[in-house]
Specification:
This protein is an alpha/beta fold and 379 residues long. It contains 15 helices and 16 strands. The strands form 3 sheets. The protein has an 8-stranded mixed beta sheet, sandwiched between helices. The longest helix is centred in the C-terminal third of the chain and has 18 residues.
Amino acid sequence: MTSVLHLGKFYPPDNGGIESVTAALARGAAQAGLRTTVICFEEHGRGDAIDQGVQVLRVPAIKLASQPLCAAYYTRGLRLARQADIVHVHLPNMLAAIVIAQLPPGPRVVLHWHSDVVGKGLLAKLTRPVERAMLRRADRVVCTSQAYADASLTLRPFIGKVDVVPLGVPDVPQPQPSVEEARASLPPALRQHLGQRPLVLAVGRLVPYKGFNVLIDAASKMVQDVAVVIVGGGPLQDALRQQATQAGLAHCVLLAGRVDKQTLAALQRLTMVFCMPSVERSEAFGVALAEALAYGLPSVATEIAGSGVPWVNQDGVTGINVPPGDSEALAFALDRLLADAPLRKRMALGARRRFEALFTERRSIDRMLQVYDRLLSTA
């Protein structure tokens, strides 16, 4: 039986776009009859597990500049990688890069290039030789969009190894609850915040590149009376809450923190416009944006140069893209969509069609399995 080892950072129920993608691809490989193992770092005291046929191995770690570190990840990962037919590495993850740089010939290596290493300064320079060694060892490099692959200076010398496999997300659960049912299912604080106002939803980790400070600034400039809800946790939570309070926006902007799947689904059902205000190429694709397309939500996102975000949210078809960091343009675009029901309806239909054509989880899994098949056929 063909064996696949995923080297990841974290794994569900730990939240995150890369985590959900890792799980979907691992489960898809297991369902296709491949013996699938994931090694990742432990968070919140979770141990080893079996997840829908996937063996999940977790090792404890400390964090340095957002990179988890653990000697056992290296030793265990290298041992398991030597035994695997395919090693699938989710990047950026410098410890996994060291494993691949040390891996002898034999296993086929797929690097899943979720993002370049961005904004790490001296640390990025120090680790660049390892990164290049990993890229030389790799058989294929999977990028989530052609736009990101073309813009990556790191990948340019290795562009002949690149395959593009857009990320996929699960379809919307059916049947969908009514608006009244979705509203009634919300926790009281969220339900009270929304009232009967239109909802602008944003989802993501509260970190600088997500640009949520720009969204809060845009909320102060909007004409429409809206409820803005930002779902997610992270180091900027207190600072963003303070920004909203000092701007007199506590009635408008709610930082909801992490919420369960049922609450998020209810919010997505109630959303009038989705917003992804990210400001850097660290936002390489936008899993939350693809999820918004699945719900048929018109979106306002940002025209980040060299990122896949403006490709996922096709301007004029599924939503509106604005310059990153421009709160006035963001406010204008949100107001425009909220005020124009026919435009929202047209873009909602465009969003759903684009999801079905490009971003279903099944399509992404099948395309990744094709990458595996090509590698094994030439082994």
